[in-house]
Amino acid sequence: MKTTNFMYTDQKNSMKVYTVLKSMTLFLVSLILLTSCETADDVDIITEIPDDIAQVFGGLEYNNSITEARENAIQNFTIDASTGGLIIGEDGTQLYFPPNGLTHLGGEAVTGDVDIAFIEIYSRADMLTQNLPTNGKKDNGDVVTIISGGEFFINATQNGNQLVAQVPFELTAPTDTFDPEMTVFVPENCDRLDCDVVWEEDEDAAIEGGEIQNADGNWTSAYVAPLTNFGWTNLDRWWSYAGPKTMVFADVPEGFNETNSAVYVSYDGEPNALALFDTYDTNLEMFTEHYGQMPIGLDVHFIFVSVQDGDYVYAIQSATIGADHIETFATTQTTTEAGLTALINALP
After folding, report:
1. Tens-place pLDDT, residues 226-250
2. What's the first-to-final CA gap in the chain, in angstroms?
3. Which UniProt keywords apply (predicted)?
4. Which residues does the chain have with pLDDT short of 50?
């Protein structure tokens, strides 16, 4: 029979034992240090990482790539605050600022030149590289997919000082077909370039139909939205799907998680939508959309993305959503930003 003996001591005796042990420990440490100094030239110290500790890739490059993509997308213009002016972006979006419509934060009227920073986003690839997915938050808190007619960042400054729009300025975005359900979405408490964006419907805003002349001289349909807030704006409508829905999880390669990568879903046939799996389950070590809003039977492409050692690390997989769907990314490839952009924009 195995027995275990326990020894108890009072506090004074404990202190005596502690003192003896401490002295012995100091002696042994000194002896080890002396020995190591004498044999340092002959002994190699080898450090091994246990097999059960997984490597986690750095996330700084990926997070910096999002900021850099947004900064590189900025188009800079100058208007006269007194006369106002019309701005036309590279993708055909127009901004019209009326005369004397801008003030300083203190309410004083602005005169002279004003700097306008402008980003226009119409493609899924730009949504992905700038981390601006079409995730919309409903009144009950559920995050679901919305269909975008264009995402925009607009800001006005003078000598680096923030300005305010006292009267509406007009955003006109070209579209192949006018959708009367489109409305204005904005992120809550987010007027900076670098904030995380989840779109919420602006119930006080309105969109009208109009026309816009393209660079080739032809006229096309357009969304016309009067705006008063600077920052991010999205022209969207709620995406409706009548079929049953399910929870979906994405199992990413070893070493990746929410700190250094992301998982997106593009819907086949919906080029103006890109959903982000906005939750990482640390117990399951999987990404998920966590509201059970993915339609069963829907044809999609799952997109895994990170940035490591200057390259985009990615995987793109086609799938049809099934009940309790788990998408597993087994292998990845590397490419440049231009290469990833071409791949994303080529999806159906």
Report:
1. 999 999 999 999 998 888 999 999 9
2. 72
3. Signal
4. 1-52
